[in-house]
Amino acid sequence: EKAQEKVFSELGRWKPLKQARPDVVIGVGGCVASQEGEFLQKRAPYVDLVFGPQTLHRLPQLLDQVRNEKTPAIDVSFPEIEKFDALPEPRAEGPKAFVSIMEGCSKYCTFCVVPYTRGEEISRPLDDVIAELVSLADQGVREIILLGQNVNAYRGRMHDGQLCDLAALVAFVAAVDGIERIRYTTSHPVEFSDRLIAAYGEVPALVSHVHLPVQSGSDRVLSLMKRGHTTLEYLSKIRRLRKIRPDISISSDFIVGFPG
Fold this sequence. Notes:
Elements: H1 2-20, E1 27-29, H2 31-36, H3 38-43, E2 49-51, H4 59-69, E3 73-75, H5 82-85, E4 96-100, E5 102-103, H6 114-118, E6 122-123, H7 126-138, E7 143-147, E8 156-157, E9 163-164, H8 166-174, E10 181-185, H9 194-202, E11 209-211, H10 219-225, H11 231-244, E12 249-251
Parallel strand pairs: 1-2, 2-3, 4-7, 7-10, 11-12
Antiparallel strand pairs: 5-6, 8-9
Helix pairs in contact: 8-9, 9-11
């Protein structure tokens, strides 16, 4: 709620600009735009353009619509794989690079807006991910950070039609010439699988750190949060991980004061 009000407050400051210069195009993008949708334009009718995180690649077409048709453009839809098809050519800016492998989340934790603003989980095909990694490695990248709102839910389609999980993807990434270090974020305990834990004993390039949000140490609160796991199940995964990689460092997230 606070984020929405900040957006509307900022828009209020832009209203005089629009009145003075009607040709100026005012747009709102991102998670708040996705959540508010048409209501945003109704509350602030001087806004010309509203788009969500999954439709950023359509921005040129939306701008053309605003300028040519003189009507507001609103697109907060969740096109499945289209966004990944519109990614720019990979370009290295140093020895480290971020690579998006999936978008969205299907967990619907009670405290989280991601499924409503970024849609259900969608994974990039394996071949597309590897092609980007090879290009980055050829440009001198040595450390890769695999990105996703729920990254260990990755299920990328392979050329034979089978699905590749994150554990298998990590092995494929490690096989790319030049890639020396692999990280990923952000994980969900439910899909922190035995295969992924085993990868820490099989893939030396996988760094000795994992970020695994637990959110609460109370089973009652975890149930209210709809996290899908207990504290014992979380601790069991950590113990198995430390048995395979004793020197691993672990970071987490905790929500303090969950309202229930």
